[in-house]
Amino acid sequence: MAAQYRFPDNFFWGAATSAHQIEGSPLADGAGPSHWHVFAQEPGRIANGDTAEIACDHYRRYGEDVELMRRMGLKAYRFSVAWGRVFPEGRGRLNQKGLDFYLKLVDALLDVGIEPFLTLYHWDLPAALETQGGWANRDCADWFADYAQTLYRALEGRVRYWTTLNEPWVVVHEGYVKGTHAPGKVSLREAPQATHNLLRGHALAVQAFRADGKGEIGLVVNLEPKYSASEERADREAANRAHVYMNQQYLDPVLLGSYPEEMAELFGSHWPQFPPEDLRLLREPFDFLGINYYSRSVNRAEPAEALTGAAPVRQAAEYTEMGWEVYPDGLREVLAWVKRRYGEIPLYVTENGAAFADPRPVGGRIDDPRRIDYLRTHLRAAHAAIAAGVDLRGYFAWSLLDNFEWSFGYSKRFGLVHVDPDTLVRTPKSSADFYREVIQSAGEVLQKD
Ligand code: FCB
Description:
By secondary structure, the chain is an alpha/beta fold. The protein has helices spanning 19-22, 35-40, 58-72, 83-86, 96-111, 127-130, 139-155, 168-177, 190-212, 233-248, 251-256, 262-267, 276-282, 329-342, 369-387, 430-440, and strands spanning 12-16, 76-80, 115-121, 161-166, 216-222, 226-228, 288-292, 297-301, 310-312, 347-351, 392-398, 417-419, 426-428.
């Protein structure tokens, strides 16, 4: 009985963060600003007018943060590189001091036996590239691959696990369809171009890795099962459109070689005819897929809703502070769906976690039982996927630290570790203790309630 939730011995137990959300000091040591830096300065873009100027001050406190990870027993740490620290103008002139930060971070991780999982693009495009059209410009894919190649060479032998893009769907949906993320555009014309250039950038970066890198490289997408609110045909079709738009738009081209047919229906005349040689490029084989999972949605037809004509229907269920339904079985479901649709490819859960309104620390402790429940139930679901034959090789809790949650600023707290917004003092929450026990027991404590 005790072994019911035992995970494989070499399973990567990790936590995840991203550069812009935790580092702070965005312009230190010669770094160039990102388009998020510019975006956050526009009035009304970010809740409470928050910015990532300080964030968790990880740029200066990374040593302390690696020590927190060590104490938690993490085997792996997923972080991203801020492109503009390495290339302040996005390309051309290298900024050695910016690169050095990541060399130091990686060495600190390796010193304590934590495997670095490096994300090349977690949403912070150098502002200088945005002024040249950003991802809507075809050249951006080449700029990205050049930047990637520099990192492969600089970190060769130290970083074995790489990912190209984090959640291209969010980059485009929030950045080009809704305008709620940088670059803040609302343009159905540019959205498909950005999508395509992001994926071209991914493929070119994988090609560069084959030439210059060592280890494994993958792509990270966010997936959500989409259910229909009723048996009505209109609702079922709406749920299916939402599903294709979010779950298949990015995976079909890179794993099957073509965009889903429905994309042209969703975008109408804005959906371009992409050249066949581009589609061949997108299919460049890569080594693993990272899946970020938070929630599901149940949908009804809503013609006013752009693109999908689908609107979520609130369920009689628990919701997080983000307004996301807690639905653990969806994690098992998306993992099983990927295997069914795309075949055998090693998988990682590269993000999973929850924002709850935590109490303030009392005597150096913070009790966050709802986050513990979230972790427990989702890890059980991950285990069920493994038991059903899914090749799942690791799990990364989002997030190591309370951090800058994009347009929500600091108002949403996902951390296993509390970060005091004024003093920046770190206090591991009870969920961090729980996670340490999970790791130490290789999952066996998931048995207990
Ligand atoms: C994901 C992002 C991550 C964080 C979590 C809550 O979409 O990859 O940066 O914002 O959501």
